[in-house]
Each structure stands twice: as structure tokens, then as C-alpha cells.
Amino acid sequence: MIKRSGIFFNMILVIFTICGTYAMLTSKAPGSGLTASGFENLKFFTVLSNEFCGIVALLWLIFYRIKKGFPVLLKLMAASATGLTFVIIAAFLAPLYPDLNLYSGGNLWFHLIIPLTAMADFILMRTEEKIPFGYTFISALLSLAYGTFYLVNILINGIGQWPDTNDWYGFLNWGFPVGIGIFAFVVLLDFAMACLLRFINHRVNILIEDSLREKRNDEKSGGRK
């Protein structure tokens, strides 16, 4: 049953990523705000993290097919990164940009459907041992790398004028100190998301193990009777 749920989740993650990518590439957005046309959307962390999640799901299926153990770190990184985008959109960017529909077209897949599916997949994933705490720090490196690229790009090329700006998230509207603070907060949020997912996964695995142990004990008791 556990293996079947893993196959199901990773198959639909691949399918959802394909659907979201198609919707993104065929988008007729004007190329401003939090949406862009076609491959220009690859500048957004949301899109990159969701594409990464889809690739990880595909690799999981390949590893399962060839009967190889899959690195749990990659699943944690994918789930925490997409979970991060879900939280930021819902709690920060959607209220900040009320005139933009951030849950339509490809954004519906990348901002809502895939993140929720990825987090559910990770939470229910069976692990033999508790995931090392150090993995949570590694997971946060994705947002750290993106934030570093984002700021360095602005330092080199300038902010530019809206809508053709290198600050496409508008985090530097309040100046560099605030913008850097926002990115630091995002990295910490990514780390916190990884910690939360790790904790819930561990608790779920304990419940599963207790249930299986109880079932085995019942079977033994029934056999003695």
C-alpha cells in the first residue's frame, strides 16, 4: 500500500508538471508583473522549484523501476521548495499584488496543485530511519542560491524600469536592506518548511510502524488461538 501511494504520487507529479509547463509555455501573458511569456517564466523561483520537483518525481519512478533506493534528500528539497512557494504566494505575494490572478493557467499548477501534492507525497513517504536534521539545511540552499543570483544580477545589471525590471518580485521597492532582509527571511522559511515536513514525516512513519506492529501482534495472537 505504501509503495503504491508512492508510485501514484510521483506519477501524478510528473503529469501535473507537464500540464503546468504546457500552460506556462503557451501563456500569452504580457511579460510583466509575476507572469511572463513562455520561457521567460524560468526566471521565477516558483517555476524552477516546480520543474525540479517534477524531475525528482520522474527520477524516483526510474529508481523504483530499476529497484534502487532513492535519495530522500532530493524529495525533501523538492517538497520544501514547492511548499515554500505555496506559502509565499498565499501569505505574501497574493495580498501584495491583489490585481494579479496568481491561481490561473500555469500558476494554478505551480502555486497550488503541485506544491500540495509534493508535500503530501513527502509526508506519506516511508522512511526506514529518521531523516537526518542536516538535510534541512541543505534543502534551504536552493532558495539561498536563487536569492544570491537574484541580488547579484541586480547589482550587475541594475534594477531597471517597470515592467522591464530585474527586480521582478518587487522585493527591493523598499531599498536593498529590506530586500536582503526579505531574502534572508525566505531562506529561513525554506529551512523551517523542511524542518516541518521532516517532523511530520517522522510522526507519520511512527504511526505507520505502530499500526503494522499492532497488526502483526494481532495476527500472532489469532494464530495461537
Keywords:
single chain, 225 residues, mainly alpha, two-stranded antiparallel sheet, 7 helices, 2% strand
If you had to describe this structure to a student in words, what would you say it looks like?
The chain is built from seven helices and two strands, in the order ααααααββα. It is mostly helical and 225 residues long. The chain has a two-stranded antiparallel sheet. Strand 1 (160-161) and strand 2 form a beta hairpin. Helix 2 (45-65) runs antiparallel to helix 3 (72-96), helix 2 packs across helix 4 and helix 6 (141-157) packs antiparallel against helix 7 (176-224). The radius of gyration is 20 Å and the shape is elongated. The chain starts with a helix and ends with a helix. The mean pLDDT is 87.
Describe the protein's topology.
Blueprint: H1 2-25, H2 45-65, H3 72-96, H4 106-123, H5 134-139, H6 141-157, E1 160-161, E2 164-165, H7 176-224
Condensed summary:
The protein is mainly alpha-helical. 71% of the residues lie in helices and 2% in strands.
Low-confidence spans: none
The N- to C-terminal Cα distance equals 28 Å
| Outline type | elongated
Please describe the biggest sheet, giving its number of strands, its sense, and whether it closes into a barrel.
2 strands, antiparallel
Q: What's the β-strand tally?
A: 2
Strand order of the largest sheet: 1-2
Which class of secondary structure composition applies to the elements?
mainly alpha
Number of helical elements:
7
CA radius of gyration is 20 Å
Mean pLDDT: 87
Helix fraction? over 70%
Strand percentage lies at under 5%
Give the SSE order as H and E letters: HHHHHHEEH
